[in-house]
């Protein structure tokens, strides 16, 4: 049964709600009010239904539950790993064996590798204490290593579907397999991390050493407690690479992690970013309403006019929009375009690559950057220019690398 056409005022209301919602996403909050991005997404979703732009049933159908399950499950899995001491064990194991000259590449490649398979925002929560503790122990200024965590988390996360929320969206909408994503974008992440290392070493190599502090007492970690998480993670990653649906494998991993005799479930639930899940639900409905009002048709007209099928142009547009309204809303807005391209797969991969790597441009370009700034503020102040002098060249170089690579492998 075909949908009933919208009245002109309903279509206009849909566009107004969409524009207002994206304004909140761009600013981070509604000026003069305490309405953040999740709140703006929920208000916008309710207004879409209230104005009749979408029915309640259409609103539910617009929510991609596979993406929500994947994101929620990965948060649970990583939360269980953190509570079990997995990341503390890695940190202590590595710091004890590193020399000062190897700390920067170790920070970059460890952060990038973890962010490739686990959500990059969560990895930043883990790696900031690592960078601060290691720099303090070795008598080094921590700023370059914190910048390394932020930039490497974004670069490494481009490699897989589970690296960041926007990749999860693209994996769900595109139908691309986990292996295809890894094979096509893994080299971009790997070479990008190498460029990140060379740039930070070049730009921050003159940083003087700080005074070393006595090493803190290492956390006591029972290796027995890490056995189950390690087995579950190996199973989940094997399922991803074997072609199983990522949402299902992540859900299985989360369910296995929750089977325990010792840990209170509430501790694990506290590891979940509920605000991000709420934001996703509202965003799905807002974009679904805008599409019903004619957004997809208008996007197709713009794509034809500006030749967005060209990988270079699509890279620039995606990167600019990602910095204007944040990467997840940008992907939700542009997701209608790749299926119309002559080479849809390359279109989806360019969208994933550009929306992720664009997050390194400014200090507010991604949630990962903000986490690093906030988690380290008691010890280190990271100003706008402190970040931008590294973030801008890293972003421009990695975007050029990603565009060139995807143009060549196509």
Can you offer a commentary on this structure?
The protein has 410 residues and is mainly α. It starts with 7 loop residues before the first helix and ends with a helix. The model has no long low-confidence stretch (mean pLDDT 87). It is globular and about 65 Å long. α2 runs parallel beside α14. The protein has one domain.
Q: Name the beta content range.
A: under 5%
Q: Which overall shape is indicated by the principal axes computed on the Cα atoms?
A: globular
Distance between the termini: 39 Å
Q: Quickly count the helices.
A: 20
Q: Write down the Rg.
A: 21 Å
Give the rounded overall mean pLDDT: 87
Supply the helix-strand structural class.
mainly alpha
Order of helices and strands: HHHHHHHHHHHHHHHHHHHH
What does the largest sheet look like?
none
Give the low-pLDDT segments. Answer: none
- β-strand number: 0
Number of domains: 1
Q: Percentage of helical residues? A: over 70%
List keywords for this structure.
73% helix; mainly alpha; single chain; 410 residues; globular
Topology:
Layout: H1 8-27, H2 37-50, H3 56-62, H4 65-84, H5 86-95, H6 100-117, H7 120-138, H8 143-157, H9 165-174, H10 178-204, H11 223-241, H12 246-258, H13 265-269, H14 274-292, H15 295-306, H16 311-325, H17 327-334, H18 344-357, H19 367-376, H20 384-409
Helix pairs in contact: 1-2, 1-14, 2-14, 3-14, 4-9, 4-11, 4-12, 5-7, 6-7, 6-8, 6-10, 7-8, 7-19, 8-10, 8-19, 8-20, 9-17, 9-18, 10-20, 11-12, 16-17, 16-18, 16-20, 17-18, 18-20
């Amino acid at each position: 049964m075909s949908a009933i056409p919208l009245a002109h005022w309903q279509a206009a209301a849909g566009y107004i709600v969409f524009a207002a919602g994206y304004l909140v996403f761009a600013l981070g909050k509604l000026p003069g009010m305490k309405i953040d991005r999740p709140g703006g997404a929920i208000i916008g979703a309710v207004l879409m239904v209230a104005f009749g732009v979408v029915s309640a049933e259409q609103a539910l159908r617009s929510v991609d539950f596979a993406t929500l399950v994947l994101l929620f499950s990965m948060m649970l899995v990583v939360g269980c790993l953190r509570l079990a001491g997995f990341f503390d064990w890695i940190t202590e194991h590595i710091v004890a064996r590193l020399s000062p000259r190897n700390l920067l590449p170790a920070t970059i490649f460890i952060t990038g590798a973890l962010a490739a398979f686990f959500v990059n925002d969560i990895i930043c929560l883990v790696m900031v204490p690592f960078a601060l503790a290691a720099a303090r122990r070795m008598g080094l200024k921590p700023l370059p290593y914190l910048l390394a965590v932020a930039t490497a988390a974004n670069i490494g996360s481009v490699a897989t579907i589970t690296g960041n929320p926007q990749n999860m969206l693209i994996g769900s909408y595109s139908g691309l397999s986990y292996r295809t994503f890894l094979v096509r974008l893994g080299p971009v992440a790997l070479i990008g991390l190498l460029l990140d290392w060379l740039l930070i070493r070049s730009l921050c190599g003159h940083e003087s050493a700080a005074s070393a502090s006595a090493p803190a007492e290492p956390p006591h970690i029972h290796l027995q407690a890490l056995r189950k998480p390690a087995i579950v993670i190996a199973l989940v990653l094997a399922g991803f690479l074997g072609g199983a649906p990522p949402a299902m494998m992540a859900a299985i991993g989360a369910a296995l992690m929750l089977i325990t005799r010792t840990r209170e479930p509430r501790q694990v639930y506290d590891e979940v970013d509920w605000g991000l899940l709420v934001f996703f639900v509202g965003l799905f409905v807002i974009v679904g309403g805008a599409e019903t009002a004619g957004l997809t048709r208008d996007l197709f007209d713009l794509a034809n006019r500006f030749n967005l099928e060209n990988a270079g142009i699509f890279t620039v547009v995606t990167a600019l929009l990602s910095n204007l309204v944040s990467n997840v809303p940008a992907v939700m807005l542009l997701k209608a375009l790749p299926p119309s391209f002559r080479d849809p797969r390359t279109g989806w991969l360019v969208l994933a690559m550009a929306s992720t790597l664009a997050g390194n441009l400014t200090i507010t370009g991604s949630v990962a950057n903000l986490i690093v700034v906030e988690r380290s503020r008691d010890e280190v102040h990271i100003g706008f220019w402190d970040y931008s002098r590294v973030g801008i060249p890293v972003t421009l170089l990695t975007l050029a690398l990603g565009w060139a690579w995807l143009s060549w492998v196509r």
